[in-house]
Amino acid sequence: MKTIPVLAAACALSACTVNNYTQAADGSVATSASQAELRAMDGVAATDAIPTDVRRATFIVRDLERSLAFWQGALGLELNYDIETQLSGVNLPVGEPGAEARLVLLNGNDPYIGWIGLMQITDPVLPEAAEPYPQRLSPGSTVIVLAVDDAERRCADAAAVEGALMTGPTRLQVYPGRGENAPDIRVRGCNVFDPDGIAVEINQLLD
């Protein structure tokens, strides 16, 4: 396993800790805080915690640099982990046994949940799909919803990434509030397919 030196200069010397994960120079990773400790950081008491957290969604991508232009460059997620590794092809059923892959992890503001993983099989490369990715959703489709600081800017930046496809203009949506007599929930945003056809909803919560 090979570490790509993108986290910080100190990582190349011994180890570094980013978002509660420690990455050694050989690419090995260990958590530096327990699940309970991480929940406590988010203000969740042990007595209130349910047994499961939605930790991360990982996508298999064609061109990782192009995907980073979308998820990191346009949408503002922060890259915190970048390695080259070999796959078994069994537990994670992608690529041939022993295939080489590059995996990056990106996070938003939370140190524990809501991460995005991007993986590209680099050798041997996966065959290109015969047809472009579907542009309509159906059972089994995935929609990733991101809360952003400036929907107009993030939607425009996402639309400018090569291979991305906007489904329509940025718009205002109003949803019923949670609970009786609660105010409506107002969000401005857009929907876009990323360069690999992952459906993404970008929205900004309005006052």
Automatic annotation (TrEMBL):
InterPro entries: Glyas_Bleomycin-R_OHBP_Dase, Glyas_Fos-R_dOase_dom, VOC_core. It comes from the Bacteria. CDD domains: VOC. Signal peptide: none annotated. Coiled coil: none annotated. It holds the Pfam family Glyoxalase. PROSITE patterns: PROKAR_LIPOPROTEIN (PS51257), VOC (PS51819). This is Uncharacterized protein. The lineage of its organism: Bacteria, Pseudomonadati, Pseudomonadota, Alphaproteobacteria, Sphingomonadales.
